[in-house]
Amino acid sequence: MIQRLLPFLTLIVLFVGLTIASPFFLTQTNLSSVVRQTAVINIMALGMTLIIIAGGIDLSVGSILALGGLLGTMAMAQGYPIWVGIGVGVLAGLACGLANGVLTTQLNINPFIVTLGTMGIVRGLALIISNGLPVHQIPPRFSFLGEGTLFGLPFVLWVLLLCAVAMHILLENTRLGRHSFAIGSNPDAAYYAGIPVKFDTTIVYAIGGLLTGLAGMIEASRLMTGQPTAGNGYELQAIAAVVIGGGSLRGGEGSVVGTLIGAFIMGLLSNGSDLLGISPYVQQAIIGAVIILAVTFDELRKRKMTA
Amino acid sequence: MLLHLGGIQKRFGGVTALKNGSLSVRQGEVHLLLGENGAGKSTLMKIVAGLIAPDGGTFEWRGSPVRFRAPVEAAAHGIAMVHQESLLAPHLTIAENLFLGREEVCRAGLLKRSRMRERAAALIAQHKFPLQADWRVEKLTPAGKQLVEICRAVVSGSSLMIFDEPTSSLSESETREVFRIVRELRERGMAVIYITHRLEELRAVGDRVTILRDGETVHTAPLGEITNDEIIRQMVGREMSALYHREPAKVGEELLRVERISRKPLVKEVSLTLRAGEITGLAGLVGAGRSEFCRAVFGVDHADSGQVYIAGKPVEINSPRQAVQAGLALIPEDRQHYGLATLRPVGENISLASLPLVSTFGFLNQRAERRIIDTYMARLRIRAGSPKQLAGRLSGGNQQKAVIAKWVARRARVFLFDEPTRGIDVGAKAEVFQVMDELARSGAAILMVSSEIPELLQMADRILVMRQGRISGELPGRTTPEQIMRLAALETTTSEFAS
Ligand SMILES: Nc1ncnc2c1ncn2[C@@H]1O[C@H](COP(=O)(O)OP(=O)(O)OP(=O)(O)O)[C@@H](O)[C@H]1O
Ligand SMILES: [Mg+2]
């Protein structure tokens, strides 16, 4: 039991430790900046949780995030209203996810390979469309998405909570969620049970893409630019959040709460290192070590239950 | 005394697998270990083989206490085990699997590949198993894998050999070969521990018997001093008859008609009709194409030709999904592989095929789902800590029951049961038969594929026999084993063990 709570305890210890170590940590400005920073990865990681549970993986989310943000801001730069721009970004993400899903299920190629490919293709698309140049002419009110405040809390926190609750319900209370767990843990058994394995898998990737598109719009709103190079390396952070939170790359395991905790652990680690003046180089190594530790403890817990 | 276990205890989290497991095995004897599904037989044997550590109790090997921390330590004492679930590496060949962990290498450290292959081939030939050393294990049927497991143990064991339900997926002739191996091992002075649920094979091999019930050793006796009825009574803890008696139900309209369905290489123009209320038996030797026929009808494998009619209407079935929607259910033969999500809770496995029945607009109704789970866990007497226990942690027989529960919970109209009683204990067999009977009475049509001729005779209203991919005849339910064998028999050829 204690080991099951380990990620959560780690988060608490980090929180308390940082409160003691730095006077700047427990301030409203700092905490809301942590939330805003983490929200982007967090929302992507929610989609990744679903994908990983269904036995897949998506390496292209960093690129999708860039394409979504880019197309969304371009729409706004063309004079379309903000909500249309956001819609464009989200739909672009959905379309990319759908493409990933269709490619993996129809060509029957390992998703690692497929999304490694689309990671390059989508990034290339973003660079071609924008000619490598960021979009700047964005209506100022768009910054509310990433930087605004609602009822005293960062607006993105509300968005994140909404997504998290929706994903939790999807996983625990819908057929698609149950099918995802089944497909991830034994695709043959799922197929024999009459589950539309290919269709469901495609939807799973599409949902992942949709959330990534949304994350792309938040990122664009925070930076107030549409960057074709945004989100580089985010895929690994999203995967790390899922895995720290107890998700298994073998499929069939993972949870929304775990992923949220995983993402916040990483968020606090990088925020704490900034506050304590630890160099970004060391930060990278620390995060890497935490990933390995987290997975090790999780494996130990599982082994104890089996042996 | 070669092996002595006293008061062995083992808990897995909240589940007590063994409370008081005791067993003494002498050199040169075949010791039968019996008990219901989940009684703790496999757990006790895994302790002996060094796969799991006991929580308490005494474990003596040749008179001195031992404690194995890994299978290699047990192997070093000459103990080998044939596992209930296949523990082979699927992507390697049979020969590579046989020598896995004890590869022969030359002085430069390179593998002696051809020599190992020759030795493997010799071993296979010696036992006349229909296998070839360079076949990849993933292509084998469950029976083929079982034979490889047996060869593997024969290669490595030297003092004690443990067989955990070795014959549950084997044909008559292979079963006889396994018995021959067991007797040969005994003649060489080795001890054998043999677990089985097939009471009729006990007397063919055993010397003494130990019976486990709920994790406790309840009885040990020489086989000559105990009757089968007494064995069953000790196993289940109450009076029970090994024979299930079924009254035929009223036969209604035709539900499934298959016309000249073919699927290369094993199914050749098979036609049959299943009617409501009727249990139709499908007999045949292993490799006759019975499972392949079921898979083709269920849309797992695409039929090359032929037509399926449901309730008189032609239907197109190209995937299990379409089959399920047409009202079909298949309880597959290889239930570990095709039936169970081992890392998910038992409950979820049971409700998996029935989710459409308990959801509205894609949202699950947890209470309705729970009702299905509770009903069928109780009906099939699935022994688990709770519906939340991971399916992979159930005992072998309880895993089988969970898969059966999944399909009977889904209210299908036509059921294809492929070897429904494999690996389940006498008590559970009676439950499964009862469920089949109730399904038939409530108007379902049932095809019962079984290699257990006595069970077909107990259950089926009529029996079809398959031989080499074709229906070779139809017999009434009250036929004799000899009649069935006459229609089924023909020498098997090697190719039938790989798909
Ligand atoms: N790894 C595990 N984790 C949790 N429970 C376990 C584990 N392995 C076995 N059990 C439980 O221990 C009990 C005994 O299991 P075991 O496999 O020894 O039964 P068995 O006598 O071999 O039954 P069968 O005839 O079905 O093979 C079962 O209730 C099972 O659920
Ligand atoms: Mg067992």
Overview of the molecule:
The complex is a heterodimer of chains A (307) and B (499). By secondary structure, chain A is mostly helical. Chain A has 13 helices and two strands. The model of chain A has no long low-confidence stretch (mean pLDDT 88). In chain A, strands 1-2 form a two-stranded antiparallel sheet. Chain A has a domain at 36-232. In chain B, helix 13 (366-379) packs across helix 14 (396-409). Chain B has a six-stranded mixed β-sheet, sandwiched between helices. In chain B, strands 16-19-20-13-21-22 form a six-stranded mixed β-sheet, with helices on both faces. Chain B has two domains: 3-240, 3-Layer(aba) Sandwich (Rossmann fold), CATH 3.40.50.300; 254-497, P-loop containing nucleotide triphosphate hydrolases (Rossmann fold, 3-Layer(aba) Sandwich), CATH 3.40.50. Chain B is globular. The longest helix of chain B has 16 residues, at 172-187. Chain B has helices at 41-48, 71-76, 94-98, 113-126, 142-156, 172-187, 202-205, 228-236, 290-297, 320-325, 335-339, 346-351, 366-379, 396-409, 426-441, 453-459, 481-488, and strands spanning 3-12, 15-25, 30-35, 56-61, 64-65, 79-82, 160-164, 191-195, 208-213, 216-222, 254-263, 267-275, 279-284, 305-310, 313-315, 328-331, 359-360, 363-364, 414-418, 445-449, 462-467, 470-476. Chain A binds chain B through residues 173-176, 178-179, 181-182, 185-186, 188-196, 252-253, 305-307, and chain B through 12-13, 52-53, 300, 319-321, 323-325, 330, 332, 337-344, 348-349, 352-353, 355-356, 359, 362-364, 366, 390, 393, 406. The complex binds adenosine-5'-triphosphate and magnesium ion (MG).
Q: How much of the polypeptide of chain A forms β-strand, as a percent range?
A: under 5%
- Kindly report the average pLDDT value of chain B: 84
Helical stretch tally of chain A = 13
Give the helix proportion of chain B (percent range).
25-40%
Spans where pLDDT lies below 50 across 5 or more residues of chain B = 491-499
Question: What's the CATH H-level superfamily name of the largest domain in chain B?
Answer: P-loop containing nucleotide triphosphate hydrolases
Structural class determined from secondary elements of chain A: mainly alpha
Strand fraction of chain B equals 25-35%
Principal-axis shape of chain A: globular
Q: Estimate percent helicity of chain A.
A: over 70%
Q: Main interface pair?
A: A-B, 24 and 35 residues
Total beta-strand segments of chain A: 2
